[in-house]
Amino acid sequence: MIYIRKAQERGHAHHGWLDSWHTFSFAEYYDPNFMGFSALRVINEDTIAPSKGFGTHPHQNMEILTYVLSGVVEHQDSMGNKEQIPAGEFQIMSAGTGVRHSEYNPDNQQALHLYQIWIMPDQQNITPRYEQRKFPDQSGRQYILTPDARENSLKIHQDMTLSRWVLAAGEEGSFDPAPSRKVWIQVVKGDVTINDQRLEMSDAAAVWDEKTIVFSADQETELLIFDLPPV
To answer: Among 56, 52, 161, 137, which Cα is nearest to 98's?
Structure first.
C-alpha cells in the first residue's frame, strides 16, 4: 500500500516571517487523519525570513531533527550549546527530561529553508543531548539516523533508521522493508517514481505491506527514507 501525501495538500501557515507547511497536525492545523505516522509526529517544511526566528521555547520527551536546505540556523539551548548549522547539515536534539532552545536565521538578507522533524522516542525522560553533522556529498544511500549510530550516523532513541538517497537523472534504487515495518519517503528535491506512482518535490509517500520499494529519478533527486516500527 502506498499513500501519496501531496505537498499542496499539507497544512499551511504564513506568519509573515515564517512560511510553514505541516505534513501532520501541528499548532493551529488539525486533521485527525494526519496525526503522525508510526513514530513520526512532525514534518514541517519552513522558510524563515532574514533576521527572524523562534524565540526560546521548551521541549520534552521528543527527538527533534533539523535538516537545513539553504541558509544557516543559529541554535542556542539550555544545555549550553550555541551553534550554527549551515545548509547540508543535520542536527539532532533529544529533549528528554526537558530542554529550552531558540532557532534564528542570523542572515539579514537570505531566507532560511529547512525541514524540522519530530520523532517520538522509545525511552522517556532521558538526559537531553545535542549532535550535528555534515555528511559527505555522495550518490546512493547514506544512513543519517540509526539507534546504534552505525556507519557514522547520528544516534536516535527509536527503533528506526533515516537514510538519505541521492539519485542522478535516470538512476534507480530499491530496498525491501522487513515485514510489518512502515516506510515514509519525503522528496526533498527532484521528481521520482515510486512503485509506479510519481512524486514531485516536497511530496511524500506513506508505504506499508510492500515487499519491495523501487524508485526511479526523473531528474537529480534527493529522498529522505524513514524505516519505522509497526506502531
So the answer is: 56
* This prediction's pTM: 0.96
The torsion defined by the Cα of 151, 116, 230 and 181, in degrees rounded to 10, comes to -50
How distant is the alpha carbon of residue 218 from its chain centre?
Answer: 22
Cα separations (Å) of 154 from 63, 103, 159?
12, 20, 13
At which residue does the C-alpha cell 497544512 appear? 11
Backbone conformation region of residue 27, classed left if phi is above 0, alpha if psi is from -120 to 50, else beta: left
For 55, 77, 155, 189, 217, the CA distances from 81, given in Å and listed in that order, are 15, 5, 18, 30, 38
> What per-residue confidence (pLDDT) applies to 31?
96
Return the closest-CA partner of residue 150 out of 160, 137, 139.
160
**Grid cell at residue 105:** 536565521
Average pLDDT per run of 10 along the chain, which is 231 residues long? 97 97 97 97 98 96 98 96 96 97 97 98 97 92 97 97 97 94 98 95 97 96 97 81
Q: Choose among 182, 203, 222: nearest CA to 1.
A: 182
| E runs forming strands in 87-230 | 89-94, 99-104, 112-119, 129-134, 140-146, 154-155, 161-167, 172-175, 182-189, 192-194, 197-199, 204-208, 213-217, 221-228
